[in-house]
Amino acid sequence: MKILVVDDESGIVLLCQQLLELSEYEVTTATEPAQAIDYARQKRFDLLLTDIRLPVMDGFDLVNQIKAIQPQIAVVVMTGYNTVETAIKALRSGVDGLVIKPYELGSELLEIVQQAEAHRRRSRHSVELDALQPLFDFGSLNLLETSLPEIERNLLQVMANVLQAANAGIYIRPEGGKAYRPVRVSGTLPALDDPFWENASLCALPGTDSIARWSLSRFDIVEGEDLLQRLGYSCCAAVCVQRPKETFLFLAARQGSEPEFLQADFDLLERIARQGCARMENMRLVTNLTHIARRVEGAEGIFRQSERMQQIENLLPAMLPDFHNPLQALKNSLVLAKRPENQGSRAGEYLSMAQKELYRLEVALQRLLSLAQPSSTQRGPVEIESLMQQVLDLMAAQIKDSGAQVKTTYARPLSPAVTVREDLEQVIFILLENALDALRQAPAGEDASVEKHIWINVRCENERLQINIEDSGPGFSPQARANLFRPFNTSKPQGRGIGLVVARRIVEAQGGRLTSAKPVHGLGANLQVELPC
Asked: How many angstroms separate the CA atoms of 174 and 109, rounded?
């Protein structure tokens, strides 16, 4: 501990010096107040031991002037007048101890010096606890922050408040870079081309997650003092945090008339730096993940639309008769109605036939358009029997060409599914198309006359609608089952591997599940949809 002893009696000064140095204190002595003030401007001290009665200046005035230079210094005053008035004045002046001269025992002085230092340490701890409150507030603020600029603003405000520094800034230097760039700055800090950055050893860090401190004050080398005077600062403090891809610098500076930073200030700045780095990196990660999620959502929409277009492409050849036959019948009916021999009641019959064919054509077009139009996002009750029948009607030609027999079983009563009708319709399409593809992939040497079956079972249990679509195909191999819902995983020669992925995403978005269940009727595939009902 460094002690400044001030007394106009050289004998008292020498006695104090000897007693304190025997206890391994570093002692500087002065016999005049002006000399003591000069020492205080040049060197840091932990404790001031001064007489109350001094020439030219009162001892309490000296205490006030030195504390203005070094606010953290502990103070013990000496007096030969043991009066209540002296004690009260000492307390009001904020001193930490009072010694009555002459000393009977040297241990008395040492004990009071130790008590004064302990008292000053407790006062510092109290100040540090008060200063920590903004850090707790900063932690709670971050729970509400939604952007990186907001975190940077709050972080800078905490730095300025906790350190009582009007000038504060956050800088970043990329990996391999030589210069810092400002992230956010308040007050007046040196420009990036200022010699200040050459003076500051802010680049040498041993490795990732390492932390370095740097400071500059009026007590440092002459070059540092000149630099501070030019910038108008009393002191600077910086903490560098090395991260895997960049280095963060947290810099604070106080104005020329303000006290220097204490060790406690450095501790607080380091805590702020650690918290700040973590907050900024976490928010960057959240921002990046949000962008990725949005891109995935966009890609998912493209996949779903692609799957819907594929369904339309598969259905068009099978639906051509639904368009051609009504059009041909409509044409023939109109030709017959125009003939002279068919005027009257016969013409009415042909026109009625034409009207029916127009209705058939309208139904076919509505079915096709229902697949092409964008699905609604509004959930509502969906009658599963009517939806299932509509899908089976649309796929009737494909089912017939495959030679499959479809058996539907409904465990009544059935509650409506709470979902988006168009989305569930697309899921059923995908599962039935997968079942038909499985039936077409007959193993080599298998008798073509073997019956092909698709079983559709629908039931409602515990407010959950279950739809099972099972086929009599070869089923899934263990490897195929493990990768069933992975994108672009397919065993079909012309498959794209996105159908089941799209179906699962649709079902999960509706609060349901799509899984592979154990087959009931054989060894084929059994895919199960669960939805709230």
From this structure: 55
- The token pair that represents 295 in the structure block: 């891109």
From the DSSP assignment, how many helices (H) and strands (E) are in the chain?
15, 17
What is the token pair recorded at 446? Answer: 């298998």
Residue 393 backbone phi and psi in degrees, to 5? -65, -40
CB atoms within 10 A of CB 113: 25
Cβ contact 255:234 at 8 Å: yes
The single residue listed with the structure tokens 């995935």 is 296
For residues 117 and 47, is the Cβ–Cβ distance under 8 A?
Answer: yes
Q: What is the pLDDT of residues 118-171, one digit of tens each?
A: 777 766 655 555 555 555 555 554 545 568 888 888 889 888 888 889 999 999
* Contact between 512 and 445 (Cβ < 8 Å): no
Q: Are 59 and 53 in contact (CB under 8 A)?
A: yes
Whole-model pTM above 0.85? no
DSSP for 451-500? -EEEEEEEEEETTEEEEEEEESS----HHHHHTTTSTT---STT--S-HH
Strand-strand pairing, 26-30 and 47-51? unpaired
- Say how many C-beta atoms besides its own lie within 10 A of residue 489's C-beta: 16
Q: Which DSSP string corresponds to 59-81?
A: HHHHHHHHHHH-TT-EEEEEES-
Instruction: Report which of 182, 204, 205 is spatially closest to residue 193, judged by C-alpha positions.
Output: 182
